Amino acid sequence: MRNYHVAVLAGDGIGPEVLAEGKKVLEAVSRLDGCFQVAFTDFPWGCEYYLKTGEMMPEDGLDVLRDFDAVYLGAVGYPGVPDHISLGGLLLQIRRGFDEYINLRPVKLLRGAPCPLQGVNREDIDMIVVRENSEGEYANVGARLYPGTPQEIALQTGVFSRKGTERVIRYAYELAKKEGKTLTSISKGNALGYSMVFWDEIFAEVGREYPEVETHSLLVDAASMFFVKDPKRFQVVVTSNLFGDILTDLGAAIAGGMGLAAGANLNPEKKFPSMFEPIHGSAPDIAGKGLANPLAAIWSVSQMLDFWGEEAWGRKVLQAIEALLAKKSALTPDLGGSAKTHEVGAALIRELEAL
Ligand code: NAD
Ligand code: IPM
Ligand code: MN
């Protein structure tokens, strides 16, 4: 029997609502498989915890999580706690502290998912964004000088190390090579003459080791335009932390919406646990009403299964999502339905059982 122990950080807003369904799906998968078991440990960390204790997680939080096989995260951030404190004290701590330097975000239009673009076929939107996840614009190096005076200055420095840039680009080349896909690097060397020129140089340098991979380089502004006008030109995409953040919300918009967008924060060496999450936030506007779409959180379960080497189940979870979308019988309002969050989870498990 294979055993997986998952640390659950449901977090804030709709986080607990969508994770409850993802946990049920993972339990159903282990029951249907019969050869592996999943155990969950829930942690109450998040904004409510902060309001009680003054911290988003205990000081030894990373040590507590270190030996788990995965972290499953809902969403972090809620009105009442400044976002840079809540996110800086939990989600970003984990990504950096566990060296989860790869953020894998599929932008794939599943059969039955709505797409706002005209003249686009389903197969035209099928990319995987490899986002740098440990440094870059998110390194949080900077200063506030002369606060409250007319001379006030805010500095925020991007940090692009050779190691950090090279490893994410190399990961993307390996992925493109393995899957026989093209690789597009998205940067901004025309304006960011240090960091992004460096990025482009490393992209070319590492590329010399992968002559079989067809490559493209785009500036992020043009790339955003092409995400909308011609998404089929993208297969594997590699980009920096901030650009990847923005482009994957755009990616979500063209591939079914925020309720369908998942992301895996990977430490490929498995020295530390990896973390799986929907890419959306805590959605305070719909929290507590049963309106949240759990499919993004469920898709991230599929990514977790893939990462554990249970790819057959990863694929089946995705197939079940697609079957549900095609039937349109149990979908939340963001996808045009009237089902509650928990009804979507239950219907998804029925699809899994029927596969
Ligand atoms: P958001 O992703 O929470 O919401 C944006 C819009 O998408 C809202 O209208 C929301 O209702 C909708 N939406 C999001 N997820 C949905 C779902 N599963 N089903 C249906 N609709 C969904 O982004 P925001 O409003 O900019 O941020 C809210 C809070 O979440 C902020 O505190 C922000 O910092 C935080 N945040 C956290 C994460 C994370 O934990 N990974 C990601 C993004 C934002
Ligand atoms: C995401 C989120 C986070 C990010 C925020 C909440 C810090 O937007 O996971 O996409 O920018 O990485
Ligand atoms: Mn984001």
Strand order of the largest sheet: 2-1-3-12-11-4-5-10-8-9
Proper CATH architecture of the largest domain: 3-Layer(aba) Sandwich
Provide the number of structural domains. Answer: 2
Which class best fits the helix and strand makeup? alpha/beta
The CATH superfamily of the largest domain appears as Isopropylmalate Dehydrogenase
Strand composition percent? 15-25%
The main sheet comes to: 10 strands, mixed
- H/E topology pattern: EHEHHEHHEEEEHEHEHEHEEHHH
Quaternary: single chain
Number of helices: 12
**Rg (C-alpha, Å):** 20 Å
How far apart the termini lie comes to: 23 Å
Unreliable runs: none
Would you write up a description of this structure?
The protein has 355 residues and is an alpha/beta fold. The protein folds into two domains: 1-106 and 258-355, Isopropylmalate Dehydrogenase, CATH 3.40.718.10; 115-131 and 160-255, 3-Layer(aba) Sandwich (Rossmann fold), CATH 3.40.50. It has helices spanning 15-33, 47-53, 61-65, 83-88, 91-97, 162-179, 195-207, 220-229, 241-254, 295-308, 311-327, 341-354; strands at residues 2-11, 36-43, 70-75, 102-108, 126-132, 136-145, 153-159, 183-187, 215-219, 236-239, 262-266, 275-278. It has a ten-stranded mixed β-sheet with strand order 2-1-3-12-11-4-5-10-8-9, sandwiched between helices. A two-stranded antiparallel ribbon has the order 6-7. Strand 8 (183-187), helix 7 and strand 9 form a beta-alpha-beta unit. The longest helix is centred in the first third of the chain and has 19 residues, at 15-33. The mean pLDDT is 98. The chain binds nicotinamide-adenine-dinucleotide (NAD), 3-isopropylmalic acid (IPM) and manganese (II) ion. 3-isopropylmalic acid binds at residues 87, 91-92, 245, 279.
